[in-house]
Write a structure and sequence with these properties.
Radius of gyration: 25 Å
Shape: globular
Number of strands: 21
Structural class: alpha+beta
CATH topology of the largest domain: phage-related protein like fold
Strand content: 25-35%
Number of helices: 5
Length: 362
């Protein structure tokens, strides 16, 4: 019978995930899914203000109206798993500790699970943001773009306290270079760090540095408030089996069931800035007659690779509408006459360009 050794790691594993996640400061656990996969959230409307009329009889306060409500359905979709083995003979032939199952599990969590949760959460925050701005940022425009995005949230009368900004390291560097507008030091003392990854604040908002590969392609920063987005983690199981049937050694398994949702009524408290046009690396090889094969090696976080062919094609700029461009097939096979021009671009969920390749001649 298999022996589950992961129990003694359970506390440590949960601690590793909690400390490793950068997105925690921008989400909440206010929605309970219990034993359900789908939860419907009700939001009540408000009543209009009337002029008080002391001579109005039974309607001095106005005509009563029944309060209406809206609903939002939240269905969990992210069921992720992994499994691997560590053969007993390989472990015996390796230096002590190299093929340790517990260390391998922790490495899997730190390098795969945690980045995946963050990546998915940031993708959904950007996708559902109430304010979306496009424009390549420089040291001269980074600070003003941030303030404008933050002001858009303030104008919607959302709380200032506890707002967080998930920023790319490249954007933080731009802030540091703006000595005219941004005069506060980005680095802060250890005793002032509130959130994991926090490196400073800007316009009263905590700045959390996020590695580029965890943010959606093209995104420089996302400003949000934790009240906006429940992020349930329904299942999180990690198991280490020693000598299970058919395996000499360890079998490691993991299951993660999670998701994130943005409340419809609170989307306006989320602002995203697409401030970098990704340079798409597109490779072309000859296909069958009348076709070429295209492959994209650039990261496609939160976006889709699309293409356009023709006798004259121009590379789209950041934020351009490319919703009509064709989706690049999984096999990369594209119909293109010899001598025609081809451009590959990355399209986000709004149909906007977040990156493009150089023009390729078929």
């Amino acid at each position: 019978m298999a022996i589950n050794l992961a129990e003694k790691y359970s506390t440590q594993v949960d601690e590793v995930i909690r400390k490793g996640l950068l997105s925690t400061a921008g989400v909440n656990n206010d929605v309970s899914f219990g034993n359900a996969q789908t939860v419907t959230v009700f939001s009540m409307d408000t009543a209009p203000l009337n002029d008080y009329n002391p001579d109005g009889g039974m309607q001095r306060y106005g005509t009563p109206v029944e309060l209406q409500d809206t609903t939002q359905e939240m269905k969990m979709t992210q069921q992720k798993a992994f499994t691997f083995t560590i053969d007993k003979t390989f472990e015996a032939d390796s230096p002590e500790g190299v093929r340790n199952a517990g260390k391998a599990l922790q490495r899997q969590i730190e390098q795969v699970i945690i980045p995946e949760i963050d990546r998915y959460r940031f993708e959904k925050l950007a996708e559902n943001a109430g304010t979306k701005n496009y424009g390549e940022l420089t040291a001269d425009t980074a600070y003003t773009a941030f303030v404008a995005a933050n002001t858009a949230i303030t104008d919607e009368e959302f709380p200032v306290e506890n707002r967080v900004a998930f920023c790319s390291n490249a954007f933080i560097e731009l802030l540091k270079q703006d000595t005219v507008h941004f005069t506060k030091a980005t680095e802060i003392a250890q005793d002032r760090i509130i959130f994991k990854g926090m490196v400073g604040d800007c316009d009263g908002v905590a700045i959390i540095a996020v590695p580029k590969r965890r943010l959606p392609t093209g995104v420089s920063f996302i400003i949000t408030h934790p009240m906006c987005a429940p992020a349930p983690v329904k299942l999180q199981e990690y198991k280490i089996h020693r000598d299970p049937p058919g395996i000499a050694g360890h079998l490691v398994e993991g299951l993660l069931y999670h998701d994130i949702f943005v409340f419809d009524k609170k989307k306006s408290a989320v602002s995203v800035q697409y401030g970098v046009a990704e340079t798409v690396e597109a490779l072309m090889t000859a296909g069958e007659e009348g076709t070429i094969n295209l492959s994209v090696t650039s990261a496609k976080n939160g976006c889709t690779a699309v293409y356009k062919t023709g006798t004259s094609v121009s590379a789209p700029k950041l934020g351009a509408d490319i919703s009509a461009w064709a989706v690049l097939p999984a096999d990369g096979a594209v119909t293109a006459a010899a001598g025609s021009k081809v451009c590959v671009a990355l399209r986000n969920s709004d149909g906007k360009c977040v990156g493009a390749s150089a023009i390729i001649t078929a």
